[in-house]
């Protein structure tokens, strides 16, 4: 996952590149001047807003660069607008009972270059397409644990977000256009877990946002729609009241490598060919689906990259005999109460005079020891 350290390092790298180009132009004594100059700018910038704490990290030659983390969490709703040092990379406004924020609050010196903003654990009911419009370098935005009910189109249009946390809000319908971004370059990870989402839709003319991972667990989805063509690698639909997976649900998700369909109390049926359009899928999680009792072998058609299948604590008692033939890349299956099966190459010398024959077999174990694959599959 994307880390703050990573962000700081990216920033540091940019600064370093700037310094190197500066070195190229000025060289020698001029370099000393610029280092001195930068240090003095930093020194003049130590002011920290009352109630907040400012933590300065310095980098580079003679600590010539610094990035500041401004922590204004738990101060109270009079905290905005808060002025921040020019070199602020991380602003924490969590736990402040804020009921609204707007672009005039989130602008001014320091905001334009902010990389990381934390607005979690407030009482924000809505945002507008202009709320974050001044944050032109924002890469991580935490809006979790608020009261957001909807996201207007282009909500995050101007910010090159990489990580967006919207978990624990009250969102109901999601319009994919909300995530359209101006640059549309960087892949974004979006967390929508624990909302009230019952529909996802995308207008055909909207550009496809570059969403790489989407966590929709713990919502009210009864079916899967609106995700076609999004370059997802990770999709989580755990804990949604979906009763049937239909054969068109995952069309156009050719880059998907990890799909989680776990803890779905209502899930009873998976239509044949449901995963036929997922040639890159490596991990498929069906665990803890107690009402899912059978899987036909045609369910697995097309899963040519699947390596891991998780059926732990599901209601499925056996798989059709030739299931493995559809799954050439399969490495392990987890099963039943706690049975792990690993595909192993077995050598036998009986069949061929000229050498050994290698056969792929499933070797399975439970808590008490080896079990035969025939018994469990
Ligand atoms: C922005 O929010 C602040 C604080 O909530 C408020 O005082 C101000 O009037 C708002 N400005 C606009 C343009 O809505
Ligand atoms: C935002 O603040 C909350 C509460 O202080 C914290 O739990 C969370 O990890 C922070 N989010 C980020 C992305 O740092
Ligand atoms: C989304 O947020 C929830 C709650 O904080 C967390 O448990 C989950 O791991 C996150 N999902 C991803 C994919 O990071």
From TrEMBL:
Note the SMART domains from the entry.
LRR_TYP
Keyword list (alphabetical) reads: Leucine-rich repeat, Repeat, Signal
Gene3D superfamilies this protein is in? Ribonuclease Inhibitor (3.80.10.10)
Q: Does the keyword Cytoplasm apply?
A: no
A Pfam family of the record is: LRR_8
* Name the record gives this protein: Tsukushin-like
Give the organism, scientific name: Staurois parvus
Give the classification, highest ranks: Eukaryota, Metazoa, Chordata, Craniata, Vertebrata
């Amino acid at each position: 996952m994307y880390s703050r350290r990573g962000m700081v390092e990216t920033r540091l790298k940019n600064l370093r590149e700037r310094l190197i180009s500066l070195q190229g132009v000025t060289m020698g004594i001029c370099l000393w001047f610029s280092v001195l100059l930068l240090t003095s700018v930093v020194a003049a910038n130590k002011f920290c807003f009352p109630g907040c704490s400012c933590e300065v990290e310095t980098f580079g030659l003679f600590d010539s660069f610094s990035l500041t983390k401004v922590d204004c969490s738990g101060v109270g709703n009079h905290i905005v607008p808060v002025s921040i040092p020019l070199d602020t990379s991380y602003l924490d406004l969590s736990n402040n009972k804020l009921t609204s924020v707007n672009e005039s609050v989130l602008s001014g010196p320091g905001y334009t270059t902010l990389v990381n903003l934390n607005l979690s654990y407030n009482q924000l009911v809505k945002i507008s397409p202009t709320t974050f419009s001044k944050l032109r370098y924002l890469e991580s935005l935490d809006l979790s644990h608020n009261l957001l009910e909807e996201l207007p189109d282009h909500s995050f249009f101007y910010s090159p977000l990489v990580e967006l946390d919207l978990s624990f809000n009250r969102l109901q319908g999601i319009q994919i256009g909300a995530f359209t971004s101006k640059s549309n370059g960087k892949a974004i990870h979006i967390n929508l877990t624990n909302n009230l989402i019952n529909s996802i839709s995308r207008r055909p003319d909207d550009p496809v946002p570059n969403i790489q991972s989407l966590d929709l667990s713990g919502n009210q989805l009864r079916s899967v729609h609106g995700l076609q063509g999004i370059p997802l690698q990770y999709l989580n639909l755990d804990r949604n009241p979906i009763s049937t997976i239909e054969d068109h649900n995952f069309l156009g998700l050719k880059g998907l490598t990890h799909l989680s369909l776990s803890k779905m109390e209502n899930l009873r049926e998976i239509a044949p060919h449901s995963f036929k359009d997922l040639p890159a899928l490596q991990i498929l999680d069906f665990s803890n689906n107690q009402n899912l009792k059978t899987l036909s072998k045609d369910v697995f058609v097309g899963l040519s990259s699947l390596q891991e299948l998780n059926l732990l604590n599901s209601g499925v008692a056996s798989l059709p005999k030739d299931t493995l033939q559809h799954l050439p890349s399969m490495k392990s299956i987890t099963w039943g109460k706690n049975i792990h099966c690993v595909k192993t190459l077995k050598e036998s010398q009986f069949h061929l005079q000229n050498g050994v024959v290698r056969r792929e077999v499933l070797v399975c174990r439970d808590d008490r020891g080896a079990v035969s694959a025939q018994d469990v599959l």
